[in-house]
Every structure is written in structure tokens, then in C-alpha cells.
Protein: DNA polymerase IV
Amino acid sequence: MSASAPNHLRKIVHVDMDAFYASVEQRDDPALRGKPVVVAQRSARAVVTAASYEARPFGIHSAMPALRAAKLCPEAIFVPPDFARYRAVSAQIREIFFRYTPHVEPLSLDEAYLDVTEPLIPSPSATETARAIRSAIREETGLTASAGIAPNKFLAKIASDWRKPDGQFVIKPHHVDRFLVDLEVGKIPGVGQVMRSKLAEMNVTTAGDLRAVGAAVLVERFGRWGQRLSELAEGIDDRPVKSHREAVQISAEDTLREDLPLSELAPHIQRMADKTWSNYQRKAERVACTIVLKLKTSDFQILTRSYTPVAPPRSAAELAEIACALRDRVGRDPNERYRLVGVGLSGFVADHEATRQTALF
Structure:
């Protein structure tokens, strides 16, 4: 695993493709260009995978129920997702990244961090390197990308969203304090609606307000997350770009054709356990110790339950058995219905560590 340069020397670029899945569809079908495109099955159970920039002014966004998107924009064109095609384009883009730096950390098919402190080609600045990368992507794929350039990953990710689509924004080291003072707390990764409400109760709406509150108060209120908030408000993020990201979780999930009660989910849990185990056997280089059951209620609440047995699961059947047993930990109304089921494996350790953990018991 290679890491990027020491923190005080880093030049980080966050590249984010513009409406990637929808843009691929528009590129490959000229009839879709300039029109509101929604990547999703048009069915009662489907959710939006992506929306083109023409669809977004109607309020359509990813993870929204497809039927709601259809109501918001009746003229929207629905296109079923084609992940094999998206993965192929993503691989093409990633190959472009590696021409400029060996330090590439993919976050998903459509975004990645790059450490361009010492680029592989002559370049006067990280800004010019980002511009060259975006130009190569446009010329070779026909797609556009936005980029953020900053001294660390946290700031680069925020910057990449600043001039979307097809733009880039740089935060220079000596501009960090000025940039952050008025930054809305909602722009900080990990600060969702619930956390924004809690911070608003403290009269905190900007990163500057977080600084004024101080680390001690934030830690007392939010624990370790409070410490992290304090650091981000100061522009501190020491994480290197890691060119090889080990699996955090391997999982499979499916939206059911109809909402079902907990008692009827076993066959679907078994099916997802089989898929997860198959992926685990193909992809994992380490041993997974924890089993995760994910459920989404009919009103879109997401529930997760996990269990770490004495010995890691050794088969798909064992994985399914434990995942089904986790239903007993849901603790909800037995008549409540669920629209999505997922099974995952996490808590990865080296094989010898898993053996040692089992021996301890």
C-alpha cells in the first residue's frame, strides 16, 4: 500500500465526474442530450441511481423513489442502469489518472483522490495538472469532470463541487482560513440534517462558528466526532491518498417487489447472503469477522444490525443463518414492513489474526 507525501507538502486533487451515469447515457444516445434523463427503472420499487443536470432543477436526485421523480418531472426520460458499461468507462478514466500519478484512491466509479505533489509528467502546478487530467478525460471519453485542488483531501472534495459542472476550484494553503470561515457546516462531510440541527441549537452554522465554540465544547458534546469537527474547521486533515483501498465491507442488497414483514424475509436474506459470499470468495484478501443485516422500512428508514461471532463464518449457509438470526435484534413492531434487504461482511483482518482471535475463545 503506497501513501502520498507528508501532509505539509501535499497537493491533492479530487476529481468528480459530472452526473456520470446520466452523462454516459447521453453520450451514447444523442437523442437524450439536453433532456431530463433519470437513470432508474420506472417501477414502484425502483430508486433513482442518477439524474442529468437537466433533471435536477425539478428536484430529482439520487436515492429518490423513481415514481416520485416521475411526478416531479413527467417529461423525464427513464433509462435502466447499465453498470457494466459504467465500470468500463470508469476503468478508462482511471487509466488516465495513472498517467499523472501513482497515488490514486478511487472512492466510487465516478470520483477519486489523486496526490499530484510529484506528478509523473512535467507540470508547473497542481492546478495545471488537474486541468490536463480533465482535458484528457473530455478528449478520450467525451465526458466532463470537475476538480478540486487543495492541500488535503477534505478541502479538495469540497472544492470539486464549487464550480460544477465542468469546472475546477483551487484552495491554496494561504487561503484556507479565509475559505473556511464562512463555509456552511452542511458542506462538511458527515454533517447531515440531524447534525446541522444540533449545531444550529448551539448557534453554529459555519466552520468559523465551530472554531469559536472550540474543541473542548465540541468534544464534550459530540465525543470523538466533536474533535474531528474541530480539526476540519481549522482545515486539518492528515489522511494520505491511499492507492490501494482494502475492503471495508462486502455486501449485496435488493429492493423487494413488495413490502414484507420481518417474518417473511428469510428467503431474501438467504439470496443476499449467497451473493455476498460469492463476492467475498472472489474479492477478499482478508477474513471477515462481522456479519451485517441491513433493512429499509416501507417509509425509507434504514436499519442495520451486526454480530461478530467467536469464529468467522465459513460458508454462505452459515452467513445466511447468522443474518437471519439478526432479525431478532431489530426490535420493531412485528407488523412493520420492509422494502429492502441487504447482507454484508465487515471487520476484515489478516487470516492469522482471525485464527488467533478464534483461539482466544
